[in-house]
Design a protein that fits this description.
Layout: H1 2-14, E1 19-20, H2 21-28, H3 35-47, E2 52-53, E3 58-60, H4 65-68, E4 70-78, E5 81-86, E6 91-95, E7 107-116, E8 119-129, E9 134-142, E10 145-150, E11 158-159, H5 162-165, E12 172-180, E13 187-197, H6 201-211, H7 220-230, H8 236-239, E14 243-244, E15 251-254, E16 263-269, E17 275-282, H9 293-301, E18 305-306, E19 311-312, H10 317-323, E20 331-341, E21 347-358, E22 361-364, H11 365-373, H12 378-383, H13 388-408, E23 418-422, E24 428-433, H14 438-461, E25 467-469, H15 475-487, H16 504-514, H17 520-530, E26 535-537, H18 561-575, H19 579-620, E27 627-635, E28 639-644, E29 649-653, E30 662-664, E31 669-672, E32 678-680, E33 684-693, E34 698-705
Parallel strand pairs: 6-8, 14-21, 15-22
Antiparallel strand pairs: 1-3, 2-3, 4-5, 4-7, 5-6, 7-8, 9-10, 9-12, 10-11, 12-13, 16-17, 17-20, 18-19, 20-21, 23-24, 25-26, 27-28, 27-33, 28-29, 30-31, 31-32, 33-34
Helix pairs in contact: 1-3, 6-19, 7-9, 7-10, 13-14, 15-17, 16-17, 18-19
């Protein structure tokens, strides 16, 4: 490999410009049998920072950065310096004098890149796209002067203009506009909004919505459009061309608190053991005019956002909780996936039809679970009697499907989603992992089947579409995972494929090994971190986690815009089989919706996690001084993260461990230089809660001792 690396470097050195891979291959005259070594060498050079790559995939040497125009994003600011992250994931150190007024989140062009002992350094040549200068944070007084501590990655407090500081109180959560003092590189903050005390998770959640640009309210025009659509009664024209499914044993099953019921099921088992599965989804696209104000606002939101104390819906309540919600006893317009499966769960046929249903029962997960485990009271059995045969058939089918999923190697990761209990004042008083019962798993299996069928239909019909894709894990991340698996005493051999192509079954093998062991949660979490992030794309790239070649999101149009988009496309396909017409109408729409929906999902998930951190910290403020048994869930240079059984995670500085000299090994362990004792991911540890800051969502633990779980 050394010779190949040298040849690649020489090729780039003598070139007058950056080169794409195909040009390097041609110049080096690489034969087919040598491509494997070539790409291994190329990736190694990239990891080492000896070569760089542009956003368009052209390679160049760092010393030739001026001609390469390296693009990057500013990811953090500290006193005197900043870091930018290039599009290939490489971080670049930038001295404050070389920032060119760039701020966190700005897209920039870097130049004068130089490789040093500690990594790349460079300077900002230009700012191509500015991020918002409206930032949330905490107001404080430092050395008698008003100061603003931002929530974003600005690692120091900013001075506050005296006029804007007059109404703010110590430790208030605020929003400020950041600007530079004229003729200076010094930034200062002007407070423009005061939320309330930063020690309240509810107040911090308000600020988090603003921080991520998530708008709670709708415009008057959108509300008027929604109200007009919601007030329309079902007419004979609406039913024209729809299949009448009102006689089917249809029911919804959801959480007791849910009001936006967008999916319902019906299952009939035939005498030969096969199943007729109906997945009936609210026909949201029927009520939203393409290109209207309501449609544009839904597209920009992309998804509903869920906090412990509220939901920020994608659609106004008159639609989401009203006309589109599949309430029991009401006739509703739906889009149905009608799927035939044999006794082994093989999908023998599927069709999608506009329909009308009347749900017989408003099901609740906990109630259906009691029916399944035999603990339901008589009144509960009476409630579900209109759909009981359908439920038992659905249960049987889901067990068959889950068995097939397992055989295909579906990565069944343990949920890390927390569930919060708030008191009447909105204060978090309990947190625990969300449990998934048999009814929840049943509905999930049926929805996956419908989503897969919709993607198959689109793929075989060759129409513009929005797929849910989940690509194979990055080989470098798999290498780190292998180190973890070895460190916790599991067999990593299933991950060591010579061709580098990890299969879902390989991950499932690791999960099976960890099952029932103290490291189970940590291993599950690390597998999740190793996998690529799922996203939306117009190409059917497959779904690694579900071990499916074709997948999409069809079943939640009330809360996800890609589902609404898919309904719109499939509705048009039912009206015309003209592929050229469908391509002309929806190709650009699908591409734009896929990109916007992916971005919106990341924004929503980031906001939800930030809010969860605040609620966890609020809960832990009530338990300072208490001790807990936990497991090491992460290791950094300065300390270790400990995960508790209740899903709370906190940080232990290594210096809090007495009579030790722990040093980070650069991968996933802290090693005591005196004794050789190793603390790694999965190590059981007893800790004491010593601090919790609601505003930042940070929880501090101190070391008590290692446990022997």
């Amino acid at each position: 490999m050394k010779t190949t690396k040298e040849r690649i470097l020489r090729c780039l050195e003598i070139s007058s410009q950056s080169l794409p891979v195909r040009s390097i291959l041609k110049k080096m005259d690489v034969r087919p049998e040598g491509k494997k070594d070539f790409f291994a060498a190329l990736n190694s050079l990239k990891t080492e920072g000896k070569i760089l790559v542009t956003q368009k995939g052209r390679y160049y040497l760092p010393q030739k950065a001026d001609t390469a125009q390296a693009e990057a994003t500013i990811i953090s600011l500290s006193r005197g310096f900043a870091f930018a992250r290039m599009d290939n994931g490489t971080d670049v150190f930038i001295h404050a004098d070389k920032l060119n007024n760039a701020f966190v989140g700005d897209r920039v062009v870097l130049g004068n890149l130089q490789q040093g002992i500690k990594g790349l350094s460079g300077e900002v040549r230009s700012v191509t796209e500015k991020s918002s200068r409206l930032v949330t944070g905490t107001f404080r007084t430092e050395a008698g002067r008003p100061a603003f501590l931002p929530d974003i990655a600005v690692r120091y407090s900013l001075p506050v203009t005296r006029e804007s500081a007059l109404k703010a109180k110590e430790n208030d959560k605020v929003q400020a506009e950041i600007h530079r003092i004229p003729h200076s590189s010094v930034m200062q903050a002007e407070i423009v909004k005061i939320y309330g005390k930063a020690g309240s998770a509810k107040i911090c959640a308000d600020a988090i919505l603003d921080e991520y640009g998530i708008v709670s309210g709708f415009s008057k025009e959108a509300l008027d459009e929604a109200q007009e659509a919601a007030s329309r009664k079902i007419t004979p024209e609406d039913l024209n061309g729809r299949v009448d499914l009102r006689s089917l044993p249809v029911c919804t099953i959801d959480d007791a608190s849910a009001k936006d019921l967008d999916d319902a099921i019906s299952v009939i088992k035939t005498e030969d053991g096969s199943f007729h599965l109906g997945v009936h989804i609210a026909d949201v696209s029927h009520y939203i005019a393409p290109g209207g104000t309501l449609d544009m606002e839904a597209r920009s939101r992309g998804t509903s956002v869920y906090f412990a104390d509220r939901v920020v819906p994608m659609l106004p309540e008159s639609l989401s909780n009203g006309v589109c919600s599949l309430n029991a006893g009401e006739e509703k317009l739906t889009f149905s996936a009608l799927i035939e499966l044999d006794a082994e769960g093989n999908m023998s046929s599927y069709k999608f039809r506009k329909s009308v249903i009347c749900s017989k029962v408003r099901g609740v997960y906990s109630e259906v679970n009691s029916l399944f485990d035999g603990t339901a009271e008589e009144d509960m059995r009476q409630k579900y009697s209109p759909v009981i045969d359908s439920l038992h058939a659905a249960r049987e089918l889901s067990l068959i499907l889950k068995k097939r999923f397992a055989e295909n190697g579906v990565v069944d990761l343990e949920s890390t989603e927390p569930e919060f209990t708030l008191n009447e004042d909105g204060v978090c008083i309990d947190v625990h992992p969300r449990k998934s019962g048999e009814a929840e798993q049943m509905i999930e299996a049926l929805m996956i089947t419908a989503n897969s069928a919709a993607a198959k239909l689109a793929k075989t019909s060759e129409i513009p579409f929005i797929y849910r894709v989940h690509e194979r894990p990055d080989p470098e991340r798999v290498k780190t995972l292998i180190q973890l698996i070895d460190a916790v005493g599991l067999n990593s051999q299933p991950l060591k494929h010579h061709d580098g192509k990890i299969a879902p079954k390989d991950f499932e093998n690791i999960l099976e090994q960890a099952k029932g062991k103290p490291v189970q949660k940590v291993v599950s979490h690390q597998l999740l971190r190793t996998m690529a992030k799922a996203r939306y794309d117009v190409e059917p790239l497959g779904h690694f986690g579900l071990a499916l070649a074709d997948y999409c999101h069809f079943t939640s149009p009330i809360r996800r815009y890609p589902d609404t988009s898919i309904h719109r496309i499939l509705s048009a396909m039912l009206e015309t089989k003209d592929k050229t017409d469908l391509q002309k109408r929806f190709a650009d729409f699908a591409a734009e919706a896929a990109k916007m929906s992916s971005d919106a999902e990341i924004r929503a998930m980031s906001a939800e996690r930030s809010a969860e951190d605040c609620y966890m910290a609020e809960y832990m403020t009530q338990h300072i001084g208490e001790t807990y048994d936990g497991v090491v869930s992460g290791v950094t240079q300065h300390g270790i993260f400990i995960g508790l059984e209740n899903s709370v995670e906190g940080f232990v500085p290594v210096e809090s461990i007495p009579d030790s000299d722990y040093r980070f090994d650069g991968v996933l362990s802290q090693v005591d230089a005196r004794t050789g004792n190793r603390i790694t991911i999965g190590t059981p540890m007893r800790v004491q809660a010593v601090g919790a800051d609601v505003a930042s969502g940070k929880i501090d633990f101190t070391y008590v001792g290692e446990t022997q779980k």
